[in-house]
């Protein structure tokens, strides 16, 4: 069965260009151009992924849709945008997209971003399934599980230990001790490792720029992301891509 992708774009030339690309790559595609149309299609078309323009008939209407998708449904979405300014990038991060495409885009950028988003969704579902199938004694405690779920959901933002403590419901000392005991590392190291795993995947499997990947993962500058990645892998993001990109 074909994967269903909904394209939310009010520029007909752009929407039909994307539809043509996706049709040629074996996707089942529908198009809409507004907030109300998109919400309706969630029930009628039942998309598995959404490509979402930031600006529709109203400025930032796409971000309003992104906020709805993030809070109400479990459908990954990728922003399409002509904006690359820091303020807009910070704003879209709060809605937790799985990525974004900058105009003008290439066919390979669209397909790689979609394939990575679908792969990550499947991997997440598989991990949850494996966790559910584990014997009870091997599962994380509920407070630690809540903290891990919070990290997974907010991996594209700055995640502070104080927020994880609040989510767990434990005291600071007890949470940090139990997290290290159950997970095998500190909260900071776990978050760092998860961000770097995702960064490595994006560098080798997509054509996103280093800047785009940095903002996708909640870093406010290329330099802070590059320093973190070098610390993790021993290579700069650009050199890592050159060495390992397929």
UniProtKB/TrEMBL annotation:
Pfam families per UniProt: HTH_18, Response_reg
4-aspartylphosphate PTM positions: 53
Transmembrane segment boundaries: none
Domain of life: Bacteria
The protein's name: DNA-binding response regulator
PROSITE patterns the record matches: HTH_ARAC_FAMILY_1, HTH_ARAC_FAMILY_2, RESPONSE_REGULATORY
Classification via InterPro entries: CheY-like_superfamily (IPR011006), Homeodomain-like_sf (IPR009057), HTH_AraC (IPR018060), HTH_AraC-typ_CS (IPR018062), MarA-like (IPR050959), Sig_transdc_resp-reg_receiver (IPR001789), Tscrpt_reg_AraC-type_HTH (IPR020449)
SUPFAM superfamilies with a match to the protein in the record: CheY-like, Homeodomain-like
Database matches in SMART domains: HTH_ARAC, REC
Lineage: Bacteria, Pseudomonadati, Bacteroidota, Flavobacteriia, Flavobacteriales
GO MF term (any one): DNA binding
PANTHER family: RIGHT ORIGIN-BINDING PROTEIN
Domain HTH araC/xylS-type positions: 145-243
Natural source organism: Psychroflexus longus
Residue intervals of the Response regulatory domain: 4-118
Alphabetic keyword roster: DNA-binding, Phosphoprotein, Transcription, Transcription regulation
């Amino acid at each position: 069965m074909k994967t269903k992708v909904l394209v939310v774009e009010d520029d007909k030339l752009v929407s039909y260009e994307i539809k043509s690309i996706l049709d040629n790559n074996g996707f089942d595609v529908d198009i809409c151009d507004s907030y109300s149309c998109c919400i309706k299609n969630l029930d009628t078309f039942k998309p598995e992924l959404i490509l979402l323009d930031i600006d529709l008939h109203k400025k930032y209407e796409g971000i309003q849709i992104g906020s709805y998708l993030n809070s109400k449904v479990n459908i990954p979405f990728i922003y399409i945008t002509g904006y690359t300014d820091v303020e807009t990038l910070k704003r879209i991060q709060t809605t937790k997209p799985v990525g974004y495409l900058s105009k003008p885009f290439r066919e390979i950028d669209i397909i790689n971003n979609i394939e990575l988003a679908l792969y990550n969704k499947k991997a997440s579902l598989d991990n949850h399934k494996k966790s559910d199938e584990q014997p009870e004694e091997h599962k994380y405690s509920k407070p630690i599980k809540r903290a891990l779920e919070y990290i997974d959901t907010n991996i594209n933002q700055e995640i502070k230990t104080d927020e994880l403590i609040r989510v767990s419901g434990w005291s600071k000392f007890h949470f940090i001790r139990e997290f290290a005991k159950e997970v095998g590392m500190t909260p900071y190291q776990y978050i760092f490792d998860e961000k770097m795993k995702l960064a490595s995947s994006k560098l080798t499997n997509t054509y996103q720029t280093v800047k785009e990947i940095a903002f996708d993962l909640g870093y406010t500058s290329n330099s802070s992301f590059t320093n973190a990645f070098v610390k993790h892998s021993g290579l700069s993001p650009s050199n890592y891509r050159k060495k390992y990109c397929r």
